[in-house]
Amino acid sequence: MASEENKALVRRYFEEIFNNHNMAVIDEIFSSDYVNHEKYDPDREEIIRGQKGLKDAVSAFLSALPDLQCAIDDAVAEGDKVVTRWTTRGTHKGSVMGIAPTNKQITVTGITIDRIADGRIVETWTTWDLMSLYQQLGVLPSDFKAAA
Q: What is the topology classification, in CATH, of domain 2-136?
């Protein structure tokens, strides 16, 4: 039963924070010593620490993509971890990651692994398609290929 409860907690995270833009729920479902490992590519990782760090990071994306919505495509739970494959959509209305607003619609996919302890999310590992985002915003040409 713990796996189903963990999946429900992660679904609540996606629904409340990303789809309803309810930042207050962060204090309820994330531990105070939360750590988020954002992996954009093999050579770049950003660490977000604590509830405030998460609120700041999510707020930055919601400011840039005020109509952001995130759909859970798949969720699998085992033990204390939940793996979620997701698709995010939104309109680029504000500056994000140093990119000025383009008013373009974006669709980005990613995979997140959340570790849960004592009914709270304590650690997250996320990797998402940054190159696709850059292409959709016009920062990279659509036929760009990374060097092998």
A: Nuclear Transport Factor 2; Chain: A, (3.10.450)
